[in-house]
Amino acid sequence: MSSSAGDLAEELRELLVRAREQGALEALQGVFRTFVEGHATPAPQAGDVPGRFGLVGDSKAMHVVFDLIERVAKSSVPVLIQGATGTGKELVARALHDHSPRAKYAFVAENCAAVPANLLESELFGHKKGSFTGAIADRDGHFVVADKGSIFLDEIGDMPLAMQSKLLRVLEENEVRPVGSNKVRKVDARVIAATHRDLAQMVEDRSFREDLYYRLNVIRIPLPPLSEREGDVAILTDFFLRKLAGEMGREVPEVTPEAQALLEGAPWPGNVRQLENEIRRSLALSRGIIDIVDLSPSLAG
Questions:
Q1: pLDDT tens-place string over residues 103-161
Q2: Using CA atoms in the order 122, 125, 130, 134, what is the torsion angle rounded to 10 degrees?
Q3: Residue pair 158/199 in contact by the 8 Å Cβ criterion
Q4: Domains in the chain and their CATH numbers?
Q5: ∠ at Cα 109 (211, 190), nearest 5°?
Q6: Cystine design at 146: which of 20, 53, 108, 254 (Cβ 3.0–4.6 Å)?
Q7: Per the confidence metrics, is the pTM higher than 0.85?
Q8: What is the pairing mode between strands 185-186 and 175-176?
């Protein structure tokens, strides 16, 4: 926001204080909100940045991903998305759903590593009232909610073996049985799974069921780490600067060549998520320009 705009904003704030005694507070608040929104940095639009399907990037590695999404989205076959943490696995899953005939139905996501093993079955398949302590009512599981839509099982490699066998049955029979029930319910949900683990090696180690692996791995979409996406750091930096500046109501700061070179040369073990958090941090610390001193010390080694 410019200095003149800042002065006007301050005048408007003073008017709000005076208006409390004049009964015009609500109207002036509306004027103030309109003013602020009009001077905030607009968020980047889809056509402003290179990329497709809600994913940002223009590297050869990402164009391979875009091509796979385009070819696979309209089918209902299971998809296994494999990539390191922060590479955008859920974004790919949502793209597959949003560009499929199932888009008008539910997309339900569950992180298999975040739910205790004894509750995961209930989360996925539902339960009957009284089937366990705390089951105070019947509850539909994710597969029922995602009927005719898509279910995204993130970190499938962390699913316990006992649950793997139950999931396999659902994929084979297209039906679920809630915990505590002796009745099954037919479901039609497209399964999209994701993992940062090497499932093929886990099969060799007998920590992941081979039959489930082949059920899930009908189509595999490998996501490249950010370090292998040539040219995408600069594109993502610009995208996040504009997006986050818009959220914070600030002008987009300039990035010095030295800071930009440091960003582009960093290894980014946390991938795109780490880069976004870095931009968020530097934007909060900057005073209108982002220099090396505004970046995390760890980026400089």
A1: 999 999 999 999 988 889 999 998 877 777 777 787 889 999 999 999 999 999 999 99
A2: 30
A3: no
A4: 1-39 (no CATH), 60-223 (3.40.50.300), 228-301 (1.10.8.60)
A5: 50
A6: 108
A7: no
A8: antiparallel
